[in-house]
From TrEMBL:
Region (Disordered): 42-67
GO MF term list: ATP binding; transferase activity
Protein family according to the UniProt entry: Belongs to the protein kinase superfamily. ADCK protein kinase family.
Keyword Aminoacyl-tRNA synthetase attached: no
Organism of this sequence: Rhizoctonia solani
Superkingdom of the organism of origin: Eukaryota
Domain ABC1 atypical kinase-like: 233-475
Entries under InterPro entries matching the protein: ABC1_dom (IPR004147), ADCK3_dom (IPR034646), Atypical_kinase_ADCK (IPR051409), Kinase-like_dom_sf (IPR011009)
GO biological process: ubiquinone biosynthetic process
Keywords assigned: ATP-binding, Nucleotide-binding, Transferase
Protein name as it appears in the record: ABC1 atypical kinase-like domain-containing protein
Pfam families in the record: ABC1
Amino acid sequence: MPPPSRLYDALTVIYAAAQVIQRAAVISVEKNVPSVAYGAASEPINNPARPTPLATATESKETNTEGKETEFKILPNTWTYVRPYSPITQDVSQNTIPEAILPKVREVQLQSEPTLATQIDQSKKESFDYYEDTEPAVKLTPSRVPSSRLGRLFHYGSLAASLTAGTASEYVRRVARGSGSDTGSPMMSEANISRLVEKLSRMRGAALKLGQFLSIQDAHVLPEQIERVLRQVQNNAHYMPNSQLEQVLSAEFGPNWNEKFTHFDRIPIASASIGQVHKATIPPNETPIALKVQFPNIAESIYSDLANISTLLTASALLPRGLYLDRTLAVMKGELADECDYEREATCVERFGEFLGGENERFRVPKVIRELTTKRALAMEWMEGVSVAKGARWPQKTRDQIATDILTLSLRELFEFRLMQTDPNWSNFLYNPRTDKLELIDFGASREYSKEFMDDWFELLSAAVREDRDACVEYSLKLGYLMGAESQEMMDAHVRSVTLLGVPFRASTPQPFSFKSQTITDEIRALIPVMLRLRLTPPPKETYSLNRKLSGAFLLCGRLGADVDCRSIWERVVGAYKVG
């Protein structure tokens, strides 16, 4: 029979459900809220107004008269997080913008992906025209975003109730089987994981952002079951049906909003946690743009959503104590509020455009179309590059250059701009083979750091590069990483994790540094459980986003298998920093 702790899991989830339902009961229903705000009506996948669905992309391969597979092409304007289930981009037939008006850019030919690694032609490995299709496919599904506060509470309450029932059912199943092999929490059964994925995918907003916020890329901070939920949720992208999209655009641009565009594709090319991105063209020259449209009332629902999520996570008792959930959620509230302000993001785009606008820069930042930008809508110049996440088999020289550029930019953001785009999502970096430049496309997660903080963080990182343990402890105390009363085990783990970050930049480290064979991320990952178990204080609020970006940059360099002269970057960028 399962131990009593399993029964405690079930009882705590029941208590969580009661709390969420009670919170919903005390909120008065706002007047004139349309009944559809509480539903989850979906537009059918086979809607005649919708072009060929992405789900059929795997069937789009054709054979010529000789029985050979045709080659596919990456066409211009491939800015998208959404991918079909094959190594091709969206079929041009799915694009309602006439191809004739799109800018003429050299097309990149794609060969059919080989079945076995041994079948890969060596010449393809060294060709930009070949890439390893490693990104998970993201399925686009239309579903109405619950937009009222009470409507969202209803959904969280129903989620808590269904998890309660699922936990009880799993507990009974395990008792009936009498098996001791089921050691995991009954709350995180396969059925409950499916319930979480389905509901959180529909809710969007804070639920999806929390997944990105906590996952810290591949750090494995979270229990395996929670990581599975977050991975699956991020691969299920829901978007607003036409009726809701119409309401949002009318609210932002007026009832005749469509007159502002010569073409507008109602099926988004991307859908994320707080909004979706559409292709469009604007007069007078049919200029292609990307229009980011925010989901209705997402900004207003942040605080209530996080309160409900906190209740569910606390009841599950699955998160490690050292995550300091309350502090994590408090930092996340501020970051989400910033990301929901598209006018703020537009300003950040323009600031980065000024920082990186030099003729010799290796980056391109899109121009903002201010007349089509509001707090809930953001219009920008269309970018034509290809996600660097697809570049695992690009030529070594190209991969090395991309990794060098991204690592250089990360340090410049800290020590030169003191403004960092902190979302390490690889889809935010596009490589344009025609211009040989990186295109940056998402600035919602931009964070500014004070000079005082950066001075201390510079001293800490410099101490890590010098392997100066005493200085590492001194500035860790000053920044708030440590309190001074930590155990020796905790102190050793923290100092070791900090000094590992300095390894690539040391004068004694052979250059270029091979990220393909490095073990830094694995070593830091192994220290995380110790620090979560023993630390006495949460990390400084500034470092949540900063560490997320730097760890993401290291992981991207590793994924690209890049060789980077890190010492040269350090001397050129960090060496120029002046304290005080």
